Amino acid sequence: MARRATFFKDVYQSDAPTLKIAGGFEFTHRAGPQPGAELLEAMARAYVFLGYDAALLTRREAAAFEEAGVVPPAPWATYEQSACRELVLENGKKVEVVVFPPLPKDSDMPDDGTFAKIARSVRQARKKGDLVIGLCDWGIVAEREYLARKPKDAPHLLFGSGSGTGIRGQVMLDGRLLYVRSYDKGKAINQVEILKWPQEGDFVWIPSENVLSTLVVLDNRYYDSLKIEKIFSNVDLSNN
Predict the structure, then answer these.
(1) Quick check: 78 and 98 in contact, CB under 8 A?
(2) Which of 102, 110, 103 is nearest to 79 (CA)?
(3) How many alpha carbons lie under 13 Å from residue 111 in its C-beta half-sphere?
(4) For residue 144, which phi and psi values (nearest 5 degrees)?
(5) Per-residue pLDDT for the chain (240 aa), expressed as one digit of tens each?
(6) C-alpha distances in Å from residue 99, one per residue of 18, 76, 102
(7) pTM check: above 0.70
(8) Which are the contacts of 239, defined by CB distance < 8 A and separation ≥ 6?
């Protein structure tokens, strides 16, 4: 997180409007012990400093915050709290963020009702926005099942998270969707640059022509942010 802050605050420079969007499991692991109140409070302060514009809070993370008595930072919210979010850029373009519903209880795969909810949300978002982003925490197996169904109403970008490998950027659904997955442990940033905005009709993503999807590896080229280090300086991180 300390190197991520350095990239956001001191390294990345662009005149283009920029959004920072986070998927699931930034605050907890997918299984095992939940973090305590002290660590969650520190992480909340750190993420406020990082300045995300939209973020998905999983049910597991929401339960951890509730149990610890800590309020999640804005803009982290669950599907139940905010299934659709609109972000207006400085140039007037509207980005609609559609949060995918959690998987059905006691299941690791989406059902027909889940697919129908996503389709309705995407249709509504496309009417309002210039770009539609799907946020999902299902893990790669369930996300691949969604894509295998070749949904007619799909977001322009799908940002996946949860179990499974990271994906820098894969054009799917006959070019209608760009699929990106976050990498574990927060040691890299997926960067997507929109070179040409989607248009209605036969628009397809063409890498290097209308979209660039790259992976920024946060290695030793990036120093640790002193602000983030200070936030965590008195927190016991030995079990995390």
Answers:
(1) no
(2) 102
(3) 7
(4) -65, -35
(5) 999 999 999 999 889 999 999 999 999 988 888 999 999 999 999 999 999 999 999 999 999 999 999 999 999 999 999 999 999 999 999 999 999 999 998 899 999 999 999 999 999 999 999 999 999 999 999 999 999 999 999 999 999 999 999 999 999 999 999 999 998 767 899 999 999 999 888 899 999 999 999 999 999 999 999 999 999 998 887 666
(6) 20, 11, 9
(7) yes
(8) 33
Q: Residue written as tokens 């995407």?
A: 122
Q: How far apart are CA 148 and CA 164, in angstroms?
A: 17
SS (H, E, C) 42-69: HHHHHHHHHCCCEEECCHHHHHHHHHHC
